[in-house]
UniProtKB/TrEMBL annotation:
Transmembrane helix as UniProt keyword: yes
Subcellular compartments: Cell membrane
PANTHER family reported for this sequence: INNER MEMBRANE METABOLITE TRANSPORT PROTEIN YHJE (PTHR43045:SF2), SHIKIMATE TRANSPORTER (PTHR43045)
Entry annotated with the keyword Oxidoreductase: no
Lineage of the organism: Bacteria, Bacillati, Actinomycetota, Actinomycetes, Micrococcales
Name of the protein in question: MFS transporter
Amino acid sequence: MSQANQTVAPKENTRGRVLFASMIGTTVEFFDFYAYATASVLVFPTLFFPNATPINAILSSFAIFGVAFVARPLGSIIFGHYGDRLGRKGTLVASLLLMGIATFLMGFLPAAQGHWTVLAPLALVILRFAQGLALGGEWSGAALLATENAPKNKRAIYGTFPQLGAPVGFILSNLIFVVLQTTLTAEQFLAWGWRVPFYFSAVMVIIGLWVRLKLVESLSFQKVLNEKKVVKSPFSVTMKHHWRPTLAGTFIMLATYVLFYLMTSFTLTYGTTASSVEQGQATAKAAGKTFNAEGFVPGLGIDRPTFLTMLIIGVVFFGIFTMVSGPLAEKYGRRKFLIWVTIGILIFGLAWTLFFGPGQAAAMAGLIVGFTLMGLTFGPMASYLPELFPSNVRYTGSAVAYNLSSVIGAAPASFVAIALWSAGNGSTTGVGIYLAIAAVLTLVALFLTRDTKDVDMEEFVE
């Protein structure tokens, strides 16, 4: 056969490269995100809002935490545009770089005092916005990297690997915080110790970039290029022709987002808040600080290193059941499997006060149950959401759905939960009802959506 008649097979990514690159990227992204989330509870209220009451300082810190969620839909549009027009690889590299640079610079921010009284919180808002832009494009690209390169009948299994980056990033970030808090004095931790995880992120970014630069485009996107079906404006096409799956995907993710931020940010605040005014006074006295009883709301009174360790134990279950969810979603279908898991989240919300109220042992049980449900609901999302959209708008569609859900689910979750806890004068009943309502909305979306298990992602092009 002559050379002119030979057909060159398109390049494909190896299984190991796909799985590692999809997981390492999201691990770095979520490590950076969690470093901020943890610092927003442990450090930022004191550093950036020193003149506010304790509860208002925490609420202000979480308000800035929510800035990233406002930025995420914009990030999904920007990165989705280039991911659907130019390719997944370059877009994934850009999102990782942006997240890494923003997080690294956070480690250099001064406290809000003197000339930096206004500038320090403002710089924090800007860098937090940059983190949100990056995460807005990261998840969908990583999910597509895994699922578009997966063999038939293994998409849900491959899709759990980028999802696994969430618990792995959380564990790494919080392990560092636990080590720092147990080896440094309170003064050392507040002065410079909290900055270490932000500096460490630079090392992880380098590893992630090295892996991702070795990737080639998926066969699905190569088919879009070969058939000249790249659309000029992926966002416009998505909103005009695929708004129904976008809306459905937004609410399918809702309960997952609310559950996750209640289990991490809220429980850390609630669990480490003094259980009484007397305990708060004693703790403040031991740290050489003045206790402000104004607006005090009782929590569990568990010391921070202990509760962070409890969270890490819970997140181990998150990771395990993320992996368990893949084969189950492949066997029973994404929709049916998620319906049953969401019913479990609904029941967990109604039983919330049985876990978060009695004491440390009950809270540990609640963390295990909650993070188990989190793994089961989060794992299938990397296959389910992308499968709702054709290849030429898949990056944009799945990213917009995922990140719009972050605006209505994740962004207000910690703020609303703290407000409900405060309004209940220490009772967490309202928090559980809030989670249950989110689960009901997700169930409605699931019942109105088709299953996508048998969708051929490579041939699904419009």
